[in-house]
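User: We ran a pulldown and think these components assemble together. Before we commit to crystallization trials, I'd like a predicted model of the whole complex to look at. Sequences follow.
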Amino acid sequence: MDDKTGQPNVTDGELYLSGIPHDRFTEMRATPGLVWHPYSDGGFWAVTRHGDVKTVSKNADTYSSAIRHTNLWDLEADALDARRSLIDTDAPDHTRLRRLIATSFTPKNIRRWENTVRQIAVTLLDAFIEKGRGDWVAEVAAPLPIQVILTMMGVPLEDADYLVELSNFLVEGTGEQQSLPADAFGNTTELGLLPFNSPASHALFEYGEKIGELRRKDPQDDLVTSLVQAEEQGDRLNGVEYRNLFHLLIFAGNETTRTALSHGAVALADFGDQWQRVLDDPALIEQASEEILRWSTPVLHMRRTTSKPTTLAGTEIGPGQKVVLWYASANRDEDVFTAPTKFDVGRQDNPHVAFGGGGPHTCLGAFLARLEVNVLLEEMVKRNIRLTRMSDPRRTPSNFVHGILEVEMKVEHR
Ligand code: HEM
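Assistant: Here's a predicted model for the assembly, 414 residues in total across the polymer chains.
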């Protein structure tokens, strides 16, 4: 609870241990205008309705990603400069950086990776079936996306576990407590200068620099090589930009899809009738994947800061104010989704905002993430498997990612 308002504080990571506070978001959506929400280093306007999330996302001139951070807490200019990557930039820097890597993520280029994704999915799924039960997160949902992004980047797979571990520490950095000492992994950088204030970022930077150096000397057909070779309008991607992009791709390519695959499995186990519909009619797979993305909403929010005075939903917003886009709420907006609290694999009209509300920062990896979810569902259908949940999901205490750390599943195939 927030002391002053008596309302659940939706920025309290611990609250998410028992799931997204949907009741509070429903109240906020029903409140005319925008709700002002307190926060430790300065409150924010909570944008909770679907249409408003889209408006903010598409108007990057007014709602900046470069001013004082895209996470809830403000950063000083030096910290922001040291940490800035694609996600924390505005045009024209954003346009230049995005153009450098966008080609690798177009639907056509992503389809080239379908066999790789399938091989990885099949290996993990068959091993899980062989065991009969286990932690779905550790055995399938976490390794699948990290192995895919590492293969695309050209990073050795034997380092996958290490990078998953680093990624877990980064998520911890969005909460109140970190289990790592500031000098973990040999870090000597002030934590405020590191993404997620985490010494694990230092380790990820070092790792990225090591592999970048290898590719500079010995180019390969992979994403790290194209990053280190990147040249745009005569400008090479500079060292800090490379390091931050490497970090972003590893984190974004891993944590989010893992969350979708974890919540997806839980939903398909808990709503057996919905999984039966997919088994009976595999043509529903793409719709089921979209519903899994809406249902899981792996990224709970992103933040913008106003560059000038503006008005949204009738609320006047001054310049330099924090505006937070709650995708978790917009994806349950009753004005847009029929029966939003129902997990419906046949949902016809599903304009979810799991990948953002449109506009220049729309998730770069959306096609890749969709491919991973689709392929896994296809292989599950082929094997006619059924999942039974054997434990409550152990959730991540974070207001930023809707993570599941562990969930025990039994698998049967017929
Ligand atoms: C289910 C999986 C995923 C979800 C739910 C997700 C969600 C998001 C969201 C909400 C944003 C911010 C959008 C905005 O501010 O408008 C974003 C941005 C981004 N995502 Fe994803 N993502 C997923 C998978 C991936 C993957 C697999 C990658 C790639 C490797 C990736 C790379 C990125 C990048 C680079 C950005 C920043 C784009 C920019 O600022 O221009 N994401 N993602």
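Residues 199-217 form the longest helix (19 residues). That may be worth checking against your pulldown data before setting up trials.

User: Thanks, that helps.
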